[in-house]
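Fold this sequence, please.
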Amino acid sequence: MHYLIRKHLGVGNRKVSVLKSRHPGHVYKIAARVAGEGYDMCVAVGGDGTVNEVARGLVNSETALGVIPTGSGNGYARNMGLPLRLEPALSIIKDPHFHTIDIGRVNEHIFLVSCGIGWEAVIATIFEGYRIRGILPYAQITLSTFLQYEPQEISISSDPGNWQYTGRPMLFSVTNMEEYGVGFSIAPDAKIDDGMLDICLLPRHSLLSAVKYSHDMFRSKTADIPGYIHQTASHVRIKRRFEANIHVDGTPKPAGEEIDIEVIPAALKVVIKPDDQN
């Protein structure tokens, strides 16, 4: 892969460096250094966790985030319409178009796609420990945790408008983009540059109903699912009875009984697919 990257991108007077992370957190340090040295672009090669780490090092800089997706879900790349194959992804980076997007912050972490507080956080926690990646083990975890997960009571308040909610949602995500990945839409109307986040809640359904309504999520018809709640917000405050993991772009993180989430508008310069490219 190093050879192909240099072959495609190292043309003309362009300077290309290929660096490999050595330990957790190293990718962030590389990205922060690249931004500090004024590079035009820093390209993440990996899944959503790697993309998130690189983005964290580039926030509020002039260095753009490029992505060569090689992960299991590739939620960021799918939401942005980026190619999942190597050579088409390199072609977009070789002739980049740029856009500035919002990001989310949950406690001390950032997210580009979504953070999850409910059942989806349990799935992410278990999947993180699996050696085998891919859709099959993810589906197995999804089924087993669905049958076992008991939602805890939460209280939400958000601005603007001081919206309030108290309940026991099965699924509870705050998103900046439409889907988790692989076409599974949770916030069909989400926009990456509107200065708002999308609060999405779903109640517990029977397994049969969940299978039935999952088809609506693949068709971006999430609003048709009974009990679906959607609210936009710039700032979200959550209180719950006990601490548990949340997920941040698919990576589990510990969190306490109070969770604070806000949008950071126009915080990240990114490489996007040209409008005329399919």
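The chain is about 30% helix and 30% strand. The radius of gyration is 19 Å.
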